[in-house]
Amino acid sequence: MTEPLLEDIDTGIPQYTRAQFLLSTDPYEFIYSFSNNKLKMKQMINLMSEQAKAVKVNNFASLFAEYQKSLKAKSGFGEENHTDFTGQPLDLECGSWTGR
Description:
This protein has helices at residues 18-23, 26-32, 38-54, 60-75. With 100 residues, it is mainly α.
């Protein structure tokens, strides 16, 4: 038995346009709505990244990381130290570690 293709599964993710990924916060707000469930949020990030790539937005994960930083800045919390490796799919907190 073959597994169904991802595009054949209803993921519950709204379809966004390239303009929405680049000019609005709608896709990022949707993903952030899962922030109380880290596993679900990571799954949604992966699925949304695929959708973004389909409309030629190849940096969804880094855009989402910047969205999260903007929320932290608005809330008054300072920026934590995050990883910044080429090609990393997610921005990760790394505490006091630096690669310098």
